[in-house]
Amino acid sequence: MSSSYHQPDAPNSPLDDSDSDLDLDIQELDPITTSTVAGSSSSRKERKPQEERRATHIPLRNLRMGGLRGLGKRNRGYGDLGRDRDRNNEDLHGLLSDDPEVDGTNRYAAGRSNAGEDGAPLLTANGHRRRPSIEAFNKLGSHLRLPSFLSASGGSQAPPDDTEVEAEEHDPASSRIVLVGTSQTTRFPPNAVSNAKYTPVSFLPVTLYNEFSFFFNMYFLLVALSQAIPPLRIGYLSTYIVPLVFVLAITLGKEAFDDIGRRRRDNEANSEGYTVLSFDRPGVGNAERYHAKKKLKSKQNAKSKRKTLVVPDRLSDIQEEEDAAEGEGVRHSPSSSVQEIIRKSRDLKVGDVLKLGKDQRVPADVVILKSYTNDSAMSTEESETPTETQSLLVEPISDPPIDSAATTVAEGHESTSELGNTPSADAGGVGETFIRTDQLDGETDWKLRLGSPLTQSLDPSEFVRLRVVAGKPDKKVNEFVGTVELLPKSRAGYDPYLPKTSPLSNEVHADQVSSSANSAPLTIDNTAWANTVLASNATTLAVVVYTGSQTRSALSTSASRSKTGLLEYEINSLTKILCALTATLSIVLVALEGFENVDGKWYVKIMRFLVLFSTIVPISLRVNLDMGKSVYSWFIQRDAGMPGAVVRTSTIPEELGRIEYLLSDKTGTLTQNEMEMKKIHVGTVSYANEAMDEVVSYIKQGFSVPVSTDASQAMLITPSSTFVAATTVTATRTRREIGSRVRDVVLALAICHNVTPTMEEENGQMVTSYQASSPDEIAIVKWTEAVGLRLTHRDRKGMTLHSVDTGRPVVRVRILEVFPFTSDGKRMGIIVQFLDGSETAGSVNIEAGEIWFYQKGADTVMGSIVAANDWLDEETSNMAREGLRTLVVGRKRMSVQQYREFAANYKEASVAINGRDAGMARVVSHYLERDLELLGVTGVEDKLQRDVKPSLELLRNAGIKIWMLTGDKVETARCVAVSAKLVARGQYIHTIAKLKRKDNAQDHLDFLRGKTDSALLIDGESLALLLTHFRMEFIGLAVLLPAVIACRCSPTQKADIAILIREFTKKRICCIGDGGNDVSMIQAADVGVGIVGKEGRQASLAADFSITQFCHLTKLLVWHGRNSYKRSAKLAQFVIHRGLIIAVCQTMYSIAIKFEPDGLYVNWLMVGYATVYTMAPVFSLVLDKDVDENLANLYPELYKELTSGSSLSYRTFFVWVFVSIYQGGVIQGLSQILTDVKGPRMTAVSFTVLVLNELCMVAFEITTWHPVMIVCLLGTLLLYLGSMPFLGGYFDLAFIITWGFVWRVLAIGAISLIPPYAGKLIRRAVKPPSYRKVQAI
């Protein structure tokens, strides 16, 4: 038995790394126990001899740790956090038995008190000596088992309540435990984006409910059902059923088509591929594979043996040694083998580890585990500096502070992996990456994100040992609280997949459980939310924590809703009037006859009249309008002036013609989110555009390094030497002064920033790109490169500038202190020491070079910091008026003594417990921010989208009030509002920011009430306060203002504003945006327009209309919207006229035949009149236009008229009712007078006049003729004439071919048509419509 255990020549066992003199043979202590237990597990021994070999040597320190900490530290902190780990391994079942005497909460508490007693006697706990007996070791084995979260699902050690959690779906209201790289114990929602309005199950019920909620359709349903009752039946049943089915089929078909389109586009987004790390745990048969792997890694093993100071949360030096040895066991037996697989976005699950690269969209909410720069991956992969080793027994016993643990891990443990992962360039090993969040919150600044120090230093193969505890899903995009924990390694002495022969076999890593304290906090800085985009040239490994509907962006998005146009509601109300007219007419006709004189039941007669007059409410109206919408949508998508336009909701194109409020996002919608340095002012002269060439020449002179005679010593320029270098004999004194000023300000801008250069390969060439949190800073650094000074290197200790002209380094500085930009301070500063090239490589001599303090910031704060001057305020105002974002640049030289004094005071302030920030600010203000030399002012422009200014101006002239809602900063929003001409030149902008008290809010409202011509600029915090306490009062004032700019708005705030304006004003709202943060706003609006953004299509997918440029919006509204609305209004009224006129004829006929409810036109005549004889000409009105596109753009005031709804109003409706009554009365009355009261002759005359009357009325209404209209009119006329011979069942065919028929038709037609047309001409002459005025007709 013993021979199978003792194999001293097994070099790859992790225990060979331990101190051999401290190893203890288990049989020396108790041979009986060992052999007994080992023998009882012979089957397991045969399966895995190598694992059994590991159990033979027990380092003394382990036994000591077991005695001291086995009771308490084993499971510290794991009771609740790690229960579900690796439950599926049945090999663990019954492996170790619990000792009821110690396995309780008291045990944990007791153990904690002994945490630091490293001087305690060997194998002693709480002062009692233990005998190395069988019982003692059995009990020790019990204590040293791995914690419950590693127990099998069927094992006795699983907490009873965990089985319930496994069976249930995850409760979104509770926090979650995410096991990295493995399957989760609870179900989470799938990571699929869905903008669809219906599911296959809900489609029919929801659409039918929506359709029949319209009185219109319900009326026809009742009429159709009434035909199932024999006494009420008039003509064919199909006459009433088929049109209703046809209308519903068209409407449902359109909804289905739109929703299938949405699903198809969602499917594209959900099918985007992402690289996922797949972690395969070695199975039972993998012993040889790992054995081979270890041989391959023998070189690393040598290093690992020396590398013993990896300290995850040290509790003592003994434990430190143990943890380090365990940590380095990674080298010998990785916890998993890692493969890269491609997985679709929809298939990503909570716990998946993603590998993301530059410009990749983040598909779900993730926690960043590790980030490494691509350009350093290859160079650092092969090299590794082993850490210094110290003997366990020599190292002084001391415990570091708890909160230094994370730092220790970061500094002590940088690893490389098979994936090519490298530590960050960051000295601390903390991986940095930048993300763009403009699609999420609208902010233009890049955000710095970090991997946790605990995970950054970890090899990816060890990620399976991580567990993330995250809070419940939340919509707050700027908050996150969580922890990440590194679980003990389960391989070296114990593997849940590979059972052991003895309870003591896992004793080697018993103290690893004490690393339960090995956790690190997670904050918002360690996360990247869905729809953000990685901006830096780095590879990021991140674990998915929230998916699908639980991501921040999804929670900030409201559900899609079915939108119904205002025109639909207006027509619905008109049909109610028509229905009332029908009912009145039916009752009046029965009453005229006399209720007592009615044959049969009088109410049956009324019902028959109602069915007869059902044509008054024309069912074909819905058919015509729905087909019209499809035509308008087709026009929009085929418009060559709007390439890429997509109509996603084809039921509301008329709404585009009724917009009164436009709510626009800023970032990516009005602006391109690309900064460009446009202007620089140095006090006496300003440079912009072509004048920048002069700056280039100054820089070329000023940074031309003299060729040194000593080749080994490079000449570097400092601010003092700059003046000399640039002096030319020919230049005038003034020119020399200006030249030196320009050089100073360019040098200041090239140094005072937080930008890091990175090298990227583009088209086979290496190019320098920059990364920083602020795009403004990148724009300035790019500008300094353009004028001749390139930043080539930057780390925490220094930076190097090269001359673009010569390609040689000209400036090298050591960074002594950086003061980052804050939203409160509104400035950033840096203290640097200029090197002149004479220093040796490793020297750090504070007296070796000039020390300068540079600072740049907003003019509001820098005005009091820089020395007195007479031009700063004026120039910053000028730039602000142009919409440029201004930065004031200053500098100050410091002596070595001054710097040392400052540094001492600053350090003292930085370690203060109370008032630390204020104290540090005070020191900076006292020593640095006084009388800075003012160097210049820069103006950076946030590039606007193409033609934004003229577009906004045109929309304002069209009577549309424009609000800008953005998540960006107040200053940024103000600049864009001015540069985009959202705010007129010279217009007063009233700013409400950081409002916290109600009485102050009331003051602002009172001011606005007296100045309604000013623009309002308000931040999200103040907006929330006003909407909470002064909701109606605020919105009542805000809607009167010409422009409102709301910044720092959350996505839900944007949606709330849209809903509030809609409900308060009852006007039509259009929202336009391009990011995921705009989706809620777009869906809340009456019309949502999405712009296809650079990074994401969330907004365009969720929108009703999708365009590619903001300037296309003007064409969408002013041209297509106006046409759609006017055409639909005309079409609706014409269809109503068509139904009403035939109802009047029926009434006249019923009166003439003694109030009998018999049909005048029955069966085919009725169906034919509503379809083939009038449909095409009436529908051709959708091609009509009153003005051409140029005039519509030239006179946007034409659009303004539509908002009153005058094209389809009660007034126009009743005009058409009177025309219908007149024409119907004339046609039917004269037909009966000139022929018979009843009979085929009268039917032939009246029906023919009726059809010709409709064709002529269509011709009178057309403003601009289209070839299709002519074809429709002539084609329908010929079709009717051609079909007359086949209507012998209804007409007297012999009479039709006589002149008597012709003159009667012509006479009646003339009397019917001439008066209405004459009235139209007179009204046009007296009060011409606007479109005729602009056409000068």
Mind explaining what this structure looks like?
There is one protein chain. By secondary structure, this protein is an alpha+beta fold. The protein has 49 helices and 37 strands. The strands form eight sheets. Strands 18-37-36-35-19-31-34-33-32 form a nine-stranded mixed β-sheet, sandwiched between helices. α20 (566-593) runs parallel beside α39, α25 packs across α26 (775-786) and α44 runs antiparallel to α45 (1240-1261). Residues 1-167, 284-331, 377-429, 491-517 and 722-729 have low confidence and may be disordered.
Brief sketch in words of this structure:
The chain has 1337 residues and is an alpha+beta fold. 42% of the residues lie in helices and 16% in strands. It holds the Pfam family PhoLip_ATPase_N.
Topology (SSEs and partners):
Blueprint: H1 2-5, E1 23-25, H2 26-29, H3 31-40, H4 42-47, H5 49-53, E2 57-59, H6 60-69, H7 105-112, E3 124-125, E4 128-129, H8 134-143, H9 162-167, E5 176-179, H10 203-212, H11 215-226, H12 238-270, E6 273-280, H13 287-296, H14 298-306, H15 317-332, E7 337-344, E8 353-356, E9 365-373, H16 377-381, H17 405-412, E10 432-436, E11 446-450, H18 453-456, E12 466-470, E13 482-486, E14 519-522, E15 527-528, E16 533-534, E17 538-546, H19 552-555, H20 566-593, H21 602-612, H22 620-637, E18 646-647, E19 659-664, E20 671-681, E21 686-688, H23 692-702, H24 719-726, H25 733-751, E22 756-762, E23 765-771, H26 775-786, E24 789-794, E25 798-803, E26 809-819, E27 827-835, E28 851-857, H27 859-862, H28 872-881, E29 885-894, H29 896-910, H30 916-927, E30 933-944, H31 948-957, E31 961-965, H32 970-979, E32 989-992, H33 998-1010, E33 1015-1019, H34 1020-1029, H35 1031-1038, E34 1043-1047, H36 1051-1065, E35 1068-1073, H37 1079-1084, E36 1087-1091, H38 1098-1102, E37 1105-1107, H39 1112-1152, H40 1164-1170, H41 1175-1179, H42 1189-1194, H43 1197-1202, ...
Parallel strand pairs: 19-31, 19-35, 31-34, 32-33, 33-34, 35-36, 36-37
Antiparallel strand pairs: 1-2, 3-4, 5-12, 6-7, 6-8, 8-17, 9-15, 9-17, 10-11, 10-16, 12-13, 13-14, 18-37, 20-21, 20-30, 22-23, 24-25, 25-26, 26-27, 27-28, 28-29, 29-30
Region (Disordered): 1-130, 151-174, 292-339, 404-430
GO molecular function, one term: magnesium ion binding
Binding site for ATP: 665-667, 777, 821, 856, 885, 966-968, 1048, 1054, 1077-1078
